Amino acid sequence: MPITREQFAEVLKDAYSAYYDIADDAGTELPLLFRADYKDRDEHYWFVKSATVWVNEKNEHAYVFSAPFFDADSVKACVDYALADGLPRVRPHKEHQCTNIKVVFLADRADDAVRRAVKKLNFTKNYKFGLWGYTNLLAGITDLTEKKTVTNMAGHDLEPFFKKLFAVRE
């Protein structure tokens, strides 16, 4: 028996809520379920905190969209919305390493044209020639009928993550 989108969306929301701050962004005509924000700051200091050796900040903004079917135009509209909403949230500075924008699509069925469109998605932005960090677009679509995930090049870590979620659900 295949998992329904609503059940998998709850499993996904529970998985993200462990490390991410969940925000229910309503008010858009797109099938946005929720946005999840992650912030991480690592620092190393010498004997006292005022003698900082290095600091590293990593952030991520994940946008989860759910619909029975996505076509190439709706995928582009969702990605454009995520980039327009996520890029103003980036605060580059000298301790900033990266802020990734992750777009996840949950679909009952994904055809080959949509899979190719997701594979071709690409966005990278450097701040001050990369000295103040960068932003990448991580994207993936999950076909719940076949239990298959297709990602773009930057989002290759999404595939094993979704395999684990399918294993947890079964």
Structural notes for this entry:
- The protein has one domain (5-169).
- Strands 1, 2, 3, 4, 5, 6 and 7 form a 7-stranded mixed beta sheet that branches.
- A hairpin with a 7-residue loop joins strand 5 (124-126) and strand 6 (134-143).
- 28% of the residues lie in helices and 39% in strands.
- The mean pLDDT is 90.
- It has 170 residues and is an alpha/beta fold.
- The protein contains 4 helices and 7 strands, in the order αβββαβαβββα.
Please render the helix and strand layout as text.
Elements lengths: L4 H13 L3 E3 L8 E14 L6 E18 L2 H15 L9 E14 L2 H8 L4 E3 L7 E10 L4 E4 L6 H12 L1
Parallel strand pairs: 3-4, 4-6
Antiparallel strand pairs: 1-2, 2-3, 5-6, 6-7
Key descriptive features of the protein:
170 residues, alpha/beta, 4 helices, 7-stranded mixed β-sheet, globular
Contiguous runs where pLDDT drops below 50 for at least 5 residues: none
Number of domains: 1
Structural class: alpha/beta
Radius of gyration: 17 Å
Quaternary structure state of the chains depicted: single chain
| SSE string | HEEEHEHEEEH
Taken from the alpha-carbon principal axes, the silhouette is globular
How many beta-strand elements?
7
| Biggest beta sheet attributes | 7 strands, mixed
Q: In whole angstroms, how far apart are the ends?
A: 10 Å
- Percent of residues in helical segments? 25-40%
Average pLDDT metric: 90
